[in-house]
Write a structure and sequence with these properties.
CATH class: Alpha Beta
Number of domains: 1
Distance between the termini: 27 Å
Mean pLDDT: 96
Order of helices and strands: EHHEEEHEHEE
CATH architecture: 3-Layer(aba) Sandwich
Shape: globular
Low-confidence stretches: none
Bound molecules: coenzyme A
CATH superfamily: Gcn5-related N-acetyltransferase (GNAT)
CATH topology: Aminopeptidase
Number of strands: 7
Length: about 140
Amino acid sequence: MIRKADLNDLDDIVEIENEWQDYPKWGKNGFLKEFEKDFSRTFVFVHDDVIYGFINFWEIDDILEINSIVVSHRRLRSSIGSMLIDFVVNCAPKSGCKRIILEVNEKNIPAISLYKKKGFRVYNTRKKYYDLKYDALLMELVIDE
Ligand SMILES: CC(C)(COP(=O)(O)OP(=O)(O)OC[C@H]1O[C@@H](n2cnc3c(N)ncnc32)[C@H](O)[C@@H]1OP(=O)(O)O)[C@@H](O)C(=O)NCCC(=O)NCCS
């Protein structure tokens, strides 16, 4: 199931984040700050009381921006990422969001494949944005009325 994250989930969330060497990390303090922002939402995927993944996004006016989606190595390729994206796509129209945007490193093939599978398309790029080497792909999904 997917549920809203709370302060008790922080250690598990940070542990999953730390499983990924290359992934930019917020750490405990970063997530604490997110919990304080009224436009920031963090949800976790839980099975048998164990957290296996999370997603964070901002809802500002009619734009929903996905900042982070991470799945534990213990449960990769089990459709958790897919379910987290579906969850957010379903949330968007309920809060008046008309467009979902995100940014991804061009070398992150798993994430790009996931987003494309969910209907996202590249609308712009930031050249050499990561490590002055890899482009950032800006992707969007326009929500049907
Ligand atoms: C990207 C990520 C969230 C995918 O999570 P996941 O739960 O393993 O993905 P799913 O099982 O839901 O897979 C859904 C689709 O994503 C794509 N995908 C997932 N992992 C993939 C891989 N290793 N290689 C290629 N495509 C992949 C496929 O299209 C897949 O569909 P399929 O299973 O029908 O082929 C996960 O790899 C992750 O946490 N990565 C590290 C953090 C990160 O980079 N997040 C994105 C930041 S922008």
